[in-house]
Design a protein that fits this description.
Distance between the termini: 17 Å
Number of strands: 9
Order of helices and strands: EHEEHEEEEHEHEHH
Structural class: alpha/beta
Number of helices: 6
Largest sheet: 7 strands, mixed
CATH architecture: 3-Layer(aba) Sandwich
CATH topology: Aminopeptidase
CATH class: Alpha Beta
Radius of gyration: 16 Å
Strand order of the largest sheet: 2-3-1-4-9-5-8
Shape: globular
Strand content: 15-25%
Helix content: 25-40%
Number of domains: 1
């Protein structure tokens, strides 16, 4: 059976016309990387629906690895998330309160899951390509965190399956409307994620 890496991205939200997470994912759909085929899934910006879709996709495709992508406007680098917490707030405008109004993603689930990605090798490989990347210790309390937590929860009985999440900056077109925010081209983001997927595909 062919090895599959499930790669997810999101539809546009917050008045944006595009979402770099899906732009990058769609460019990589069907590509062979490190002996694995990339299968992509576009998720809605809705915690409950996105959680169900990614959980169903994992059950259906039995992937060798799962990587979620999302937009974190204002961040200057590819942000490899280290932790997903068991909290979700459906309203992005309230994420700034640190999740104080959020509810559990999974009732009586673990408080948090750590990413199961080879983070240090990914960072080194991306750095060698001259692409900005960093570790992040907060995926927030909105839909990106929800998808990361739901993914790791769905794979809790398969501890050897690499899984995690990477946040992407604004594209230059988006940053034109956010003049104080950093941006990165879709080509550069795609190159960075392709490198990350290659490292993940080689993980034993």
């Amino acid at each position: 059976m062919a090895r599959i890496i499930l790669l997810t991205g999101f539809a546009p939200f917050g008045g944006e016309r595009t979402n770099p997470s899906w732009e990058v994912a769609s460019w990589l759909d069907g590509k062979e990387i490190g002996g694995a085929t990339i299968h992509t899934l576009e998720l809605p910006v809705n915690c409950k629906r996105a959680s169900k879709m990614v959980t169903d996709a994992i059950a259906r495709s039995d992937p060798a690895a799962v990587l979620g992508l999302g937009q974190a406007g204002g961040r200057p680098a590819l942000s490899i998330e280290k932790v997903a917490i068991n909290l979700a707030d459906e309203r992005a405008s309230r994420e700034a309160d640190g999740g104080a109004s959020a509810k559990p993603i999974v009732a009586r689930g673990p408080d948090a899951y750590f990413a199961r990605l080879p983070i240090a090798p990914i960072l080194r490989a991306i750095a060698r390509a001259g692409i900005p990347a960093a570790i992040s210790l907060s995926a927030g309390a909105y839909v990106c965190n929800t998808v990361m937590y739901s993914t790791l929860h769905a794979l809790r009985s398969r501890p050897r399956v690499p899984a995690g999440f990477i946040h992407l900056p604004y594209t230059p077109a988006q940053a034109a409307h956010h003049l104080t925010s950093a941006s990165m081209s879709v080509d550069l983001m795609t190159a960075g994620i392709e490198i990350a997927l290659g490292v993940i595909a080689r993980t034993k």
